[in-house]
């Protein structure tokens, strides 16, 4: 695996050397060689490559990657340029427009957010084509839980944005005394009206960052 850079290689070394991670690697070797798996193996760790550890301002937790062709590329909720917007992402954009007055972008590529300091982390990092949650039991849960703990330990005044039950279950991993934890319903059409719409997590994130002398996040994907 190519170095991740941004301080992640050192921080994640204990995980990559753990026997549990070696089992995940063996599982993935088989899966990638026998099935269609998303994201592409070269995009698997994009969330780390695009967001250095010492630049993490916020963490958005997703569940597992999109499982249809040409969507997933290693950043939660994000799809590649030219791909139709998934319903959850459409709702995220609607809330941003309501919260911050930013016009809904046509593109679903969230790479700019990653470079702004948002770690776009799925709790499961891979998925089999057409089968949601198909890799949720292969060990990724342990790995990403440890990543969340590392961020909690090694960063200061980070905003953890947790949408839906899966993400909200991670609250015990985060030090709420040194970070801001924002929780609400998932942006999925099935639950967005149960508290996601109107949550104002985007403005709240920036208010918190500014109150701790951190540059706010530019949520605008239109430029």
Give an overview in words.
The protein is an alpha/beta fold and 223 residues long. It is built from eight helices and six strands. The strands form two sheets. Strands 3-2-5-6 form a four-stranded parallel β-sheet. The model has no long low-confidence stretch (mean pLDDT 97).
Topology:
Elements: H1 8-16, H2 19-34, E1 37-38, H3 46-50, E2 58-62, H4 87-100, H5 111-116, E3 118-122, E4 127-128, H6 140-154, E5 159-163, H7 165-168, E6 180-184, H8 201-211
Attribute tags:
223 residues; alpha/beta; 4-stranded parallel β-sheet; two-stranded antiparallel ribbon; 8 helices; 6 strands
Given the C-alpha coordinates, what overall shape results?
globular
How large is the count of helical segments?
A: 8
H-E order: HHEHEHHEEHEHEH
Total number of β-strand segments? 6
Give the termini separation. 33 Å
Binned strand content = 5-15%
Q: What oligomeric assembly is this protein in?
A: single chain
Q: Which stretches are poorly predicted, pLDDT < 50 over at least 5 residues?
A: none
Structural class: alpha/beta
Strand order of the largest sheet: 3-2-5-6
Helix content: 25-40%
Task: Work out the radius of gyration.
Answer: 17 Å
Provide mean pLDDT, rounded.
Answer: 97
The major beta sheet can be summarized as: 4 strands, parallel
Give a nutshell description of this structure.
The chain is an alpha/beta fold and 223 residues long.
């Amino acid at each position: 695996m190519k170095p991740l850079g941004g301080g992640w290689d050192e921080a994640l070394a204990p995980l990559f050397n753990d026997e549990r991670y070696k089992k995940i690697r063996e599982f993935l070797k088989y899966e990638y060689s026998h099935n269609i798996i998303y994201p592409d193996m070269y995009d698997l760790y994009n969330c780390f490559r695009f967001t250095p550890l010492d630049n993490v301002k916020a963490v958005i937790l997703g569940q597992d990657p999109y499982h249809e062709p040409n969507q997933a590329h290693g950043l939660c909720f994000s799809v590649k340029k030219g791909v139709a917007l998934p319903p959850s992402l459409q709702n995220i954009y609607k809330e941003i427009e309501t919260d911050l007055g930013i016009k809904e972008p046509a593109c679903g590529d969230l790479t700019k957010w990653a470079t702004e300091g948002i770690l776009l982390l799925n709790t499961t990092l891979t998925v089999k084509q057409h089968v949601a949650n198909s890799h949720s039991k292969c060990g990724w849960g342990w790995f990403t839980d440890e990543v969340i703990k590392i961020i909690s330990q090694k960063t200061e005044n980070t905003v953890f944005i947790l949408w839906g039950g899966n993400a909200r279950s991670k609250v015990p991993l985060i030090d709420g005394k040194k970070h801001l934890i924002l929780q609400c319903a998932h942006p999925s059409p099935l639950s967005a009206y149960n508290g996601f719409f109107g949550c104002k997590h985007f403005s709240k994130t920036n208010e918190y960052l500014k109150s701790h002398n951190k540059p706010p996040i530019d949520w605008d994907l239109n430029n």
